Amino acid sequence: MAVLSSSGMTRRALLGAFAATTVAAAPTFSNAAGFLRGGGDIRRIRMYSGRTGERIDMIYWIEGQYIKDAVKEVNYFMRDWRTDGVKSMDLRTVDIMAAAHNLMDANEPYMLLSGYRSPKTNAMLRSRSRGVAKNSLHMKGQAADLRLSSRSVGQMAKAAIACRGGGVGKYSGSNFVHMDCGVVRNWGR
Length: 189
Description:
The chain is an alpha+beta fold. It contains five helices and eight strands; from the N terminus they run αβββααβαβαβββ. Helix 3 (91-104) crosses helix 5 (153-163). The radius of gyration is 19 Å and the shape is globular.
């Protein structure tokens, strides 16, 4: 049953106009801190490390609030496994990772290849590969290198790019995707 408002508009038309306004405003909000398309009201991160054998599967954010103890566990999990150095990860990167995971509707956890890197580890990796940046965001706790066996590098990169939250690098030859909370950009094949 169509209900007319005092202006002569049906309730459906009024709701449609509101929805159109919300969609038009979305690009403004998509760049706001703490909001990512696909992030949701509850944010969960699932990862494992082939280097340490550790696994993490936890809700770290509920309705606008980070859970302090969960964040501590995420920071420890994403440590530099070579030096055991722990850094507070920039939670925008974790948010991008979680949102991309949601967008892919993947059931398997990410395989974390690299989270935080100490300057010593970064220098060692840089001496072995041209693909390691001198001032890598990994050293600031703002980047992660991830892999999923159930999704291609292209699929993972598309999901991360859709979040519009930072940098996304495709490393098809090494089968991983780099996600960071730096300037929005993408590279690789």
